[in-house]
Amino acid sequence: MVAVSESELFAMNPAARPQMAPIAPGVPAIIIDNFYQNPEAIREAALDQSFSPATAMYPGRLATFTGQPSLLRAVDWVKNFVNQQLLPRIPLTRDGQRVTRFETLQTDFGIVDTLPQDLAPAQRAPHVDPAPIFGIVYLNEEDRGGTAFFRKTDAERQPQREGYFADTDAGFEKVGRIDGVFNRLAIYPGFIWHTAEVGDWITSDARIRSPRLTQRLVFVD
Prior knowledge:
Blueprint: E1 18-24, E2 27-32, H1 39-47, E3 52-53, E4 60-63, H2 69-86, E5 93-94, E6 97-98, E7 105-112, E8 133-138, E9 147-152, E10 172-178, E11 184-189, E12 193-196, H3 206-209, E13 212-219
Antiparallel strand pairs: 1-2, 2-11, 3-4, 4-7, 5-6, 7-13, 8-11, 8-13, 9-10, 9-12
């Protein structure tokens, strides 16, 4: 691997171009492939961070970078892109008011490593995010799944399963997905029911040897 200076670790690829793709009827997502210049180095550096158990919905562990100017630049670019290009095209509301601008964008890195039998009940079904917009960068060269989107069909029925949710099941109909292509940034509305696609690798040594790693981008306010 080519050595990358710490100051340029999260340098963005100037040739990357945004595209719009539907994830549900009438609901688009923004896809930017080849987002970073050095995704292999980012994955290696991220996995070297100190991860702590997540709370609530996330089935794994989380870590943050500190003192990374190039990461701050990348996060600022994403925030400005959403403010200038996405919000004018996709009406979003919060507390009855239209969202016209985000001031805060938080980012961290997540590893999915919870075994299917250890999932909490809420982690076995699709969920919606408290944030109106959510972004994710898939950082897996091996196939570790993408994100699946759903329509809730029955408010009373809950999936009765022991493992991860990935397809149409009790109470939910699958309506779209984003493929977890390596170094792909996806930005989508948080109000769409969704879940990570987690395959059989989660029960093998790949869970530790080559875990599912993503960068999360949470638009707070």
